[in-house]
Request: fold
Amino acid sequence: MNNTKKAVLHRDNYKCHDCNLAKKVLTIHHIMELNKHPELKFKRSNLITLCQSCHKKRHAKICRYHKPRD
Reply:
């Protein structure tokens, strides 16, 4: 585990940012998308801790938001 990930997990008290639960598996999520903002990859202010369930929900929202409209 790299230092940035450790620092973000510690800052967020090893809890999911959305559901506030301490889950066994946590992931680090980029608030601003990496494909649009690669310079923010390791910027701690752009990172939050999410559980797998909340991470999937966040990405589902992003996909719906970016879906082309008819």
User: Anything to note?
Assistant: Residues 3-66 form one domain. DSSP finds two helices and two strands in the chain. The chain has a mean pLDDT of 89. Residues 20 and 28 are 14 Å apart (CA to CA).
